[in-house]
Design brief:
- With 454 residues, the chain is α+β, with helices and mostly antiparallel strands.
- It folds into 2 domains: 154 residues, Beta Polymerase, domain 2 (2-Layer Sandwich); 184 residues, Orthogonal Bundle (cca-adding enzyme, domain 2), CATH 1.10.3090.10.
- It contains 22 helices and 10 strands.
- Helix 9 packs parallel to helix 12 and helix 9 packs across helix 13.
- The longest helix has 22 residues.
- The chain starts with a helix and ends in a 33-residue tail after the last helix.
- The chain binds adenosine-5'-triphosphate and magnesium ion.
Length: 454
């Protein structure tokens, strides 16, 4: 306490602490509930340890365990080389070209096993802005800790001894709910600008405060994200949006000045009052689904985030004389093109987004065979959920959504009646839905959940 105080008044940085030695905490001090540790993670650490290696649960999993939250995945760190790890497990695959890690599989469960990384040398190749391109050296455990991003992400847990090893004061920061970058903030952001997005994601998701020195350089250094490969930015955005705190994350990005001019997607989302209601609803629904343990689809999410840009261009093309459906396709192309430069939206996701959008005008056709054909669409459910969001946000009349809910829920005769009336015959006449068709393998749900399904 006094030491910290003296450090503070002398302005001595945390780096003064000897970070090559870990503070070791026993179960009574850290309070981790061993029941939250996955049995497969224990299988991996104990196999490695029996073979004479060091092995720990590391990173986000330890942070979550300390917060009393069940981790969604477990990463393992070891001093065994990837080859040595691979030999110990029946289903283990070395992946990655630049820095090899091992994927160990047990059934559907995948664990990532990483060899301790070294502090790296200052000659590691960098781009012209200082972003480290390759740095693949192995090293001792304390150097591995130093290379991690935040103090709360740099702890190691040994399930066998139930000890936590803390090199950078992570325990203290967890307790004080502080997000603090390891090392010199500017240098760490320059090495890897994605860390700025990670700060925001963790702060919003955990409800932690960003320590002032960690926070200060972000506004100035934000443009460095431009130089990060689009696929990585996309992955990080996806994590952010699927964190269960998407709304809070986006607000925080805005506060930190990370949205402007950097990610076209966010410019669009956050600087458009008309679209805001729609986006807020979509994100709130995503967050709720994630918190309830339900699936969400990235394509639905991105389709929602970009919808208002599509709508704007769609009406411009129509005003220029294009008919409705081709105009929508042109608008979708424009929007997807403008996003992919910065944000490599994967091809499958982009094609699902296009499906969701292009279904929208088809919902307006409520006669003849058209509605039945639309019901058959493989992405009908996502398209329909999207339609409901448009209704809820006030973009289109609620009546269209109600008609489709009744049609979707209805039996054969009710459907016929709806087709002839083309309007909702009796307000609120909702019946129990017929059993849904079985999901195809790999098929995922839309995020909006208009019908209280599941
Ligand atoms: P989540 O719960 O979202 O998975 P996480 O902390 O586990 O959070 P991951 O992306 O899975 O995040 O990374 C695992 C660990 O690897 C982190 O906890 C951190 O120690 C380290 N790490 C990840 N990305 C970086 C980075 N850009 N720079 C430094 N260390 C990183
Ligand atoms: Mg993780």
């Amino acid at each position: 306490m006094i030491k910290t105080f003296i450090r503070k008044i002398l302005g001595v940085k945390e780096s003064v602490r000897d970070t090559s030695v870990a503070v070791v905490l026993g179960p009574a001090e850290h309070g981790i509930d061993p029941k939250l540790v996955s049995s497969n993670a224990i299988r991996v650490t104990s196999s490695l340890q029996e073979a004479g290696f060091k092995a720990f649960v590391v990173g986000g999993a330890v942070r979550d365990l300390l917060l009393g939250v069940k981790p969604k995945d477990f990463d393992i760190a070891t001093d065994a080389t990837p080859e040595q790890v691979k030999r110990l497990f029946r289903r283990a695959f070395i992946i990655g070209r630049r820095f090899q890690i091992v994927h160990v599989m047990f059934g559907q469960d995948l664990l990532e096993v990483t060899t301790f990384r070294g502090a790296g040398d200052s000659n590691a190749p960098k781009d012209e802005h200082g972003r480290v391109l390759r740095d693949n050296s192995f090293g001792p455990q304390h150097e591995d800790a130093m290379r991690r991003d935040f103090t709360i992400n740099a702890m190691y847990y040994d399930p066998a001894t139930q000890q936590v090893m803390d090199y950078h004061g992570g325990i203290g920061d967890i307790r004080a709910k502080i997000l603090r970058i390891i090392g010199q903030p500017e240098a760490r952001y320059r090495e890897d600008p994605v860390r700025m997005l990670r700060v925001v994601r963790f702060a919003a998701r955990l409800g932690f405060t960003i320590e002032p020195a960690t926070r200060a350089p972000i506004a100035v250094m934000a443009p460095l994200i431009d130089n990060v490969p689009a696929a990585r930015v996309f992955d990080e955005m996806l994590k952010l949006l699927m964190s269960g705190h998407a709304l809070a994350c986006l607000q925080q990005l805005r506060t930190e000045g990370l949205h402007h001019g950097l990610l076209p997607l966010l410019d669009v989302v956050l600087e458009q009052p008309i679209g805001m209601k729609f986006v807020t609803l979509a994100l709130a629904s995503t967050d709720n689904r994630i918190k309830a343990g339900k699936g969400v689809s990235p394509s639905f999410l991105f389709a929602s985030l970009l919808w208002h840009q599509v709508v704007e261009k769609w009406s411009a093309y129509r005003a220029a004389g294009e008919s409705s459906i081709p105009a929508l396709h042109l608008a979708a192309d424009d929007v997807l093109d403008s996003q992919t430069e910065q944000l490599a939206i994967q091809r499958k996701i982009a094609s699902d987004m296009r499906d969701i959008w292009s279904m929208q005008p088809r919902f307006e056709r409520r006669t003849g065979k058209a509605p039945y054909k639309l019901l058959e669409h493989v992405r009908f459910r996502a398209g329909y959920d999207f339609l409901l969001l448009r209704c809820e946000s006030g973009e289109i009349d609620m009546e269209l959504g109600e008609w489709w809910t009744a049609f979707y829920d209805g039996d054969a005769s009710e459907r016929e009646l709806l087709l002839t009336s083309e309007r909702m015959p009796v307000a609120g006449a909702r019946k129990k839905r017929a059993p849904r068709r079985a999901k195809k393998p790999g098929e995922r749900e839309g995020v909006a959940d208009g019908s209280g399904e599941e």
